[in-house]
Automatic annotation (TrEMBL):
Signal peptide extent: none
Top-level taxonomic group: Bacteria
Keyword Transmembrane in record: yes
Family matches, as InterPro entries: DUF4396
Protein's UniProt name: DUF4396 domain-containing protein
Pfam family, one: DUF4396
The keyword Membrane is annotated on this UniProt entry: yes
Keywords noted in UniProt: Membrane, Transmembrane, Transmembrane helix
Organism listed in the record: Larsenimonas suaedae
Occurrences of domain DUF4396 (ranges): 82-222
Length: 225
């Protein structure tokens, strides 16, 4: 076992444990916004240990019976803007990550390529699935929290998610190009090394999507969470 493989297994195990810990806690403390019950555990997958800190600090809801206070805390003026943007970025990252997790094995199994490039094939499928899940992650809370009809909610979801999703995917792509040239060699979604690099890529994507979420929130296109 190489050192990279060892690090990969450790990082992936910590990611899974962090996600399970958050999921267990969320079950006892449901989120005010239902989609965040999924988003926070996904965040733990690519933010091992740090994901728990972020959840406990910015997302953990009181136990049943105190949802109103939780909503006020996270949407009120007492919440620092950077935290609202951070949670919005995790929301974007949740859809992107889920899309990437679904798309990568498909790309590997089908040997899908674009102009003979397996990496480009991975990236294209990842973008399609990430965009679909990303818009869905925006659409559901818009429908849940407002009186918007399906068409209006879909339009708002596309406006709210497109820029942040593109920023997330660009960060992810840049890291995976580096990883493929330096460590992976090929984009094989059935190796721990690939998912370790994807874990880092998703964290990079989160960082690159943060400014986009800040701009969208500042312009009122997206609401801080």
């Amino acid at each position: 076992m190489t050192m990279l493989t060892l690090w990969a297994w450790v990082a992936l195990a910590l990611g899974v444990l962090t996600a399970l810990a958050i999921a267990w806690d969320v079950k006892k403390r449901p989120q005010h916004m239902a989609i965040m019950n999924v988003t926070w555990p996904i965040t733990g997958l690519y933010m091992p240990i740090i994901g728990w800190w972020a959840y406990a600090t910015m997302g953990r809801a009181p136990k049943s019976g105190a949802h109103h206070d939780h909503a006020h805390h996270h949407h009120g003026s007492d919440t620092p803007k950077w935290q609202g943007v951070f949670v919005s970025a995790t929301h974007c990252g949740g859809g992107c990550t889920l899309g990437d997790v679904v798309a990568s094995p498909i790309a590997t199994l089908t040997a899908f390529s674009v102009f003979g490039s397996a990496i480009a094939g991975h990236f294209l499928l990842a973008f399609v699935f990430a965009y679909a899940f990303g818009v869905l992650f925006q659409y559901l809370p818009i429908r849940e929290m407002s009186d918007s009809g399906p068409a209006a909610a879909l339009k708002d979801a596309i406006k709210a998610d497109t820029l942040s999703l593109i920023a997330f995917q660009i960060g992810m792509y840049v890291w995976m190009i580096i990883a493929a040239s330096m460590w992976l060699g090929e984009m094989n979604a059935f190796t721990p090394e690939f998912w370790f690099m994807m874990q880092i890529a998703m964290l990079v994507g989160f960082i690159t999507s943060y400014p986009a979420n800040w701009v969208l929130i500042k312009r009122g296109i997206k609401h801080a969470m």
